[in-house]
Each structure stands twice: as C-alpha cells, then as structure tokens.
Amino acid sequence: MARVKLSEYRAKSLLLPVLGGSYDGVTVDLGEDYAETIKRLSAKGLYVCKVDQAVKRRNQSGLVRLRCNRQQVLEALRNFAAQGFRYALVEPYVPHNRDDERYLALVRQDDGIQLSYSSKGGNDIEANAASLRHTLLGAEKFTMSPPIAGLNRQLVEKLYDVFQSAHMTMLEINPYLIVDGRMLPLDAAVQVDSAAEFFADGAWNETDIRQAQTTITPQQQRVEDLNARSPASLSLKVLNPDGAYFLLLSGGGASVVVADELAHTGRFEDIANYGEYSGNPSEAETYIYATAVLELLMASKAKRKVLVIAGGVANFTDVAKTFAGIIRALRDNAQALKRQKVVVVVRRGGPNQAGGLAAMTACLEELGLAHSVDGPDVSLAQTVARAVEYRK
Questions:
Q1: Contact 330, 295 (CB under 8 A)
Q2: 1 pLDDT above the threshold of 80
Q3: How many CB atoms lie within 10 A of CB 311?
C-alpha cells in the first residue's frame, strides 16, 4: 500500500514539537476501557472530541463534538463506539474567531512538493477555492518558487523538514491559527508512503495507520483467521468497497509497486483493496484468500472492474500451486465474473511459472474472460498500464 493515512493524533504529535509547541491531545481506543483515561481530564476544562479514523467531513457527519466537558466527552466516545468506530481523539478546545482560520497543504508530486495556502481556512475552504495560492517546493532540498505573500518562509521550511523526514506524501492543516507568532493546527491530516516505515526512524509505525471503515469485513476477518494459523503470510485490507481495481498480489515489494503505480496514474481512489499472499501458501490457503477478494469484487458497485493478479519473481513460492488455488476460485465464481464483464490482468514469475501461467491462460480462455497473462518479461509498471487501459 503506497499511500496510507495516519491518525490525527500522530500527525499533530509530529507537527507540534517542530512548530515550537507541545501536543496535549489524548488518543482513545474505543475497543478498550477508556473511562479511567477520561477521568484524568480536568473537570474544569473544555475539550474537542472527534473520531480519529481517516473519515472525511467529520463535522457534517456529527463525528466532531466541540466545547465538551468531561462527562460530555465520555458520552461522545460511547456514541462513537456505538456507531462502530474504533479510534477517537480528545484535545483541549481552543476558542477563536473563525475569520482567523487559515489553510495549508503539501502534496508530493513528480516535480517537487506543491504547497497550497489560503487565509480563509476551515469548513469554508471549498467555497473559497479562488483564495488558494500555490507554489512549488524542491523535491530534494528546500526551495520555494515563487514565494507566497503572507506566508512565513521559516514556517514553511519547518513543515518541509518534517514532511520529508516522515516520508509524507500529503499534509493538510485545516484550519490552523497563528497564536503568539506560532502555527497552531486545529485539524491535521497526513498520508505517508507505507513502504518507508523503516526509513521514518520511528516517526510513525503501522499502529498509527487509520482506515475510514468502521468495522472489519467478513472477508478480512476470514483472511486474518487464516493468517493466524498459517506459516505463510496473508493480509487483506479494504480501501474502497466500491472500487474498480481489485488486487491479488504476491510479495510485499511487488505489492507496493502495483499499488503505487495505480496511485501515480490518478487511480488511488479506485483501488478497492490492498494485501498480499506470500511465504508459499498452500493451494487451499490461496483458494480461500482469492475467494475473499472475489467476493469483495462482486459486491462492488463499480461499473467496470479489473482483477490484477500480480507479483514479482518469487524465490520459493510455487507459482503453479498458488495459481491452482486462484484458478479454482475463478471457476467457482465464473458466471458472476462473466456477468460483470470483469477483466483479468496477470503478471507473475518464480518456481514453476511456466506451468502456472499456462494453466491461468487456459482457465481464462475457457471462462471467456478478457485477459492478459504475462511472465517477468513484462514489468509491473506495464501490467498496471494495461489494467488502466482496460478501464478507459
């Protein structure tokens, strides 16, 4: 998974020390007993309580509560938990004038890091799109061209440094205030390159990653249970239940490449799932895993769907054996796949690849599904390009 969202708690914990302050927020796991944590809040304080699970438009959905006393915080958390959410954030309420709210975002792109700024932040930023000003920061070292009037260069450089060191791909601070000459983020959203966790030097880890979904799907639970009792590695995460690109990937490195290539082509929001099967799973295990992915695919409301069966060149995972499990799952769901006109794109290499690729080709031709099947002579980037072309 190339780009994943961090919790707001982690985002602010990264930002505030860099900005010359400290962060007093409290992260809450709604699946655990949080009553004692809330008791430690000041009885006289007022707080903001919000779901911290990468949910968009939280204000409009009633997932942000302002000016809460301690008892109201507890009630809000119980309400969030009843709706199926797992994580929340509690932080001191900051009284302010809405006219003082500002907006700033950094987004990594091929030619550098685009900075967007507006003196009109908050919920009204979409209505004030004309107020946005843009500039480009250097990809490797800090430069800003052109400068933006009203935006402190030293502040931007501090944000640039943490953006780079934490391997962020997106940072949005909306709104923020300037208090005593310092930036105070009231809301912050961060995306990172998940493949860079090792290089982030402890700035964040897998426990900081958040998904917007409130509950785990039956398919994900099935894969989790399978992984718990298997020596192989099997993982499945739903990104968009109504996505168009469904991924059956093998090997961590190849998985990241495929997801990253799709994101770079502007299809990030269309990626339905992410995960991998690796460590030489058995045919039966691969069958269960593939069936879970196909169930998600058939439930999606997307009009044109592509199943990407891809991986690198395996060292010891048996391509023929794992493909036998996938082929069995395809046959079980053949009528539904044909009815939905699903396109299948395959790229794999490794032990017994010739037999596996030949069996996959024969299966897809027999089932009458549009497809392409390739070995390692075709790159993963080319495979993704074919998947994208099928949906044009």
A1: no
A2: no
A3: 28
Nearest-5° Cα angle at 351, 348 to 357? 40
CA angle at 143 for the pair 140 and 148, rounded to the nearest 5°: 140
Query: Amino acid identity of 339?
Result: R
Residue 204 CB contacts under 8 Å (≥ 6 apart), including other chains? 6, 10, 14, 166, 192, 197
pLDDT at site 308:
97
Q: How far is CA 187 from CA 40, 177, 262, 266, 369, in A?
A: 23, 10, 28, 25, 47
pLDDT digits (tens, 9 = 90+) for 186-242: 999 999 988 788 888 899 988 898 877 656 789 988 998 898 899 998 989 888 899
Of 184, 208, 232, the last residue of a domain is 208
Per the structure, the complete domain to which residue 31 belongs is given by 3-92
Tokens of 248: 């059956």
Preceding amide of 175 cis, omega within 30: yes
CATH number where 74 lies: 3.30.470.110
Rounded distance between C-alpha atoms, residue 66 and residue 197, angstroms: 33
Contact 346, 311 (CB under 8 A): no
pLDDT digits 0-9 by tens, 16-55? 999 999 999 999 998 889 989 999 999 999 999 999 998 8
Q: Which two tokens stand for residue 18?
A: 């860099």
Residue 112 lies in a domain: yes
What residues have CB less than 8 Å from 192, skipping those under 6 apart?
3, 4, 6, 166, 167, 168, 169, 200, 204
> What is the DSSP secondary structure assignment for residue 34, as one 8-state letter?
-
